[in-house]
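lol forgot to send this yesterday, sorry. struct tokens for the thing we talked abt
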């Protein structure tokens, strides 16, 4: 049986709860390191799945005392990298909220720690797994797009356009401080960047970007609208827009879109449906049923029963691309993604 701890409750820890119950994982501890971590709401969610983990005041002490197999890391974004790095250095697998880091220098240290963890075989022979919380990928429309693209039906994908749009809603105070949440490109646009990389198969190499705090409903330094233009390997290209300006009256909280232009056709994800235009005209794809969930795939990889499709390498690239895009927007000039 795998033992699990959780650090923070700002992020998408709920992705893990169904799998934890399904496989009877042992939830041995939780820590709330930031005042934004809502303990009351988290414990109410835990109880729905039959969990009542002991509460620790210090996350380092919890890791050292319990030596868990998995750490769920999802406190305020600016602090997740240090926690994830510490856990990996102890041989603990990490299920981490995105972005994996809020600065490029921090990301580099995390990548180095991960590489060391993979090169060193810990006691018991199980190398730690690092998985980022890109759970949206497992919704039926994105699963359908992923399978279709990987079948080769679109041919050589040359262009991608991706969109992530949210309602503003009532955000916690830390979202008004970009130093705390990392910025709208690493927080929101990173989803669309990851679709370009994982579904489209494009590898960004440089980026130009713009971002604006205008119309951000009084949320301090939060950017309300952003736009990125990526040059990708092989002369391919991608645009990514992200905003938190979706009207409160909109029928859904988010509006996710992906358009992939290939040598044999064009695929579009919009409104939770998938459309293809190819030699046979336009047709809608039947949505695929997702066989596993993100955290479940991570657990299966830990147990040697499969591979999580959201790889650490893709998560690192998406984070690096997002952080470089944010910095390019700040500097007003294109940057190389290194």
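and heres what i got for the seq, position by position
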């Amino acid at each position: 049986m795998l033992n699990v701890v959780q650090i923070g409750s700002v992020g998408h820890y709920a992705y893990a709860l169904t799998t934890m119950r399904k496989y009877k994982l042992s939830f041995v501890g939780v820590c709330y390191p930031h005042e934004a971590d809502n303990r009351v709401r988290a414990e109410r969610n835990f109880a729905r799945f039959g969990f009542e983990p002991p509460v620790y005041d210090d996350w380092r002490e919890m890791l050292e005392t319990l030596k868990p197999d998995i750490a769920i890391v999802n406190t305020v974004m600016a602090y997740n990298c240090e926690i994830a790095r510490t856990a990996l250095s102890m041989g603990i697998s990490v299920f981490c909220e995105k972005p994996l880091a809020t600065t490029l220098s921090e990301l580099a240290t995390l990548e180095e720690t991960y590489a060391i963890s993979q090169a060193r075989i810990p006691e018991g022979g199980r190398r730690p797994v690092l998985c980022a919380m890109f759970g949206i990928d497992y919704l039926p429309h994105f699963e359908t797009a992923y399978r279709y693209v990987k079948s080769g039906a679109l041919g050589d994908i040359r262009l991608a356009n991706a969109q992530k749009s949210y309602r503003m809603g009532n955000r916690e105070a830390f979202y008004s401080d970009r130093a705390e949440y990392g910025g709208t490109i690493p927080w929101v646009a990173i989803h669309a960047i990851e679709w370009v990389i994982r579904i489209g198969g494009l590898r960004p190499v440089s980026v130009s970007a713009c971002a604006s705090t205008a119309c951000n409903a009084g949320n301090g330094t939060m950017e309300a609208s952003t736009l990125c233009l990526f040059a990708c390997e092989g002369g391919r290209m991608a645009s990514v827009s992200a905003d938190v300006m979706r009207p409160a009256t909109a029928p859904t909280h988010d509006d996710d879109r992906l358009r992939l232009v290939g040598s044999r056709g064009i695929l579009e994800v919009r409104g939770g449906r998938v459309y293809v235009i190819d030699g046979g005209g336009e047709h809608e794809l039947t949505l695929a049923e997702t066989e596993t969930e993100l955290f479940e795939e991570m657990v299966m990889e830990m147990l040697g029963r499969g591979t999580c499709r959201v790889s650490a390498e893709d998560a690192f690239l998406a984070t690096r691309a997002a952080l470089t895009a944010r910095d390019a927007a700040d500097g007003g000039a294109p940057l190389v993604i290194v």
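DSSP finds ten helices and 15 strands in the chain. anyway ping me if u want another try
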